[in-house]
Specification:
This protein is of the alpha/beta class. The chain folds into two domains: 3-118, Rossmann fold, CATH 3.40.50.2300; 126-218, Winged helix-like DNA-binding domain superfamily/Winged helix DNA-binding domain (Arc Repressor Mutant, subunit A, Orthogonal Bundle). It is built from eight helices and eleven strands. It has a five-stranded parallel β-sheet with strand order 2-1-3-4-5, with helices on both faces. Strands 6-7-8-9 form a four-stranded antiparallel β-sheet, with helices on one face. The protein has a two-stranded antiparallel sheet with strand order 10-11. The chain is elongated and about 55 Å long. The chain starts with a strand and ends with a strand.
Length: 219
């Protein structure tokens, strides 16, 4: 499960972000004070940072510069100002993306997913002895190889990133939407069925378990 760190001083927005992220299948942590946010980020072990550009004390721009001296953790800058100067400054200091308040929650989740993929943040690289090759779109153990379609691989990686945990249909739909391909609920069901069949070919019957009204679990 990916962990997102929130550097936001508005308590209401911070709580809304935390709830949004957790409902989307992420683990979320937030700054508890603003004396040394950089240290909190570094000690959190997070996979991505959502950082308000106007946090108190050390502002987001300065914090981003300090953070970039110590790590390459992806950062999405958040601001309430629709100001191109803010975007240019943030990106020049090493931000990976930029979004302006008020933002659409679905768009924010898409941005997060895109940045994580672009930065190569992946928590599982193998499954039951098979290497997961996203570039080739296959599972391979040196003796057997099975090819997955682009959508099947996206679904499989989402499930694999939360191995043993429930992944909601909404999260899968969001991941597939971020792939710029139109997909509806029925298409998701078809892709899940095809993925199940291919995993069964490898001897992994029942690898994907359906949790009614909740989502799917990869075992």
């Amino acid at each position: 499960m990916y962990k997102i760190f929130i550097a936001e001083d508005d308590e209401l927005i911070r709580d809304e972000l935390k709830t949004l992220l957790e409902n989307a299948g992420y683990s979320a942590a937030a700054a508890d004070d603003f004396d040394d946010v950089c240290a909190q980020i570094l000690s959190s072990g997070c996979d991505l940072v959502l950082m308000d550009i106007n946090i108190p004390g050390e502002n987001g721009e300065t914090l981003l510069r300090r953070l970039r001296k110590s790590c390459k953790t992806p950062v999405i800058m958040v601001t309430s100002r629709a100001d191109e100067a803010d975007e240019l400054i943030s990106m020049s200091f090493g931000a990976d993306d930029y979004i302006t308040k008020p933002y659409n929650p679905a768009i924010l989740l898409l941005r997060i997913s895109a940045v994580l993929k672009r930065c190569g943040k992946a928590q599982q690289r193998s499954y039951r002895g098979f290497e997961v090759n996203s570039a080739k779109g296959c599972l391979d153990n040196g003796e057997r190889e099975i090819i997955l379609t682009k959508n099947e691989m996206i679904i499989f990686r989402e499930l694999l990133d939360s191995l043993g945990e429930i992944v909601t249909r909404d999260r899968l739909m969001t991941a597939l939407w971020d792939n710029d391909e139109y997909i509806n609920d029925n298409a998701l069901t078809v892709n899940i069925s095809r993925l199940r069949a291919k995993l069964s070919e490898l001897g992994f019957d029942g690898a994907i378990e359906t949790r009614k009204k909740q989502g799917y679990v990869l075992k």
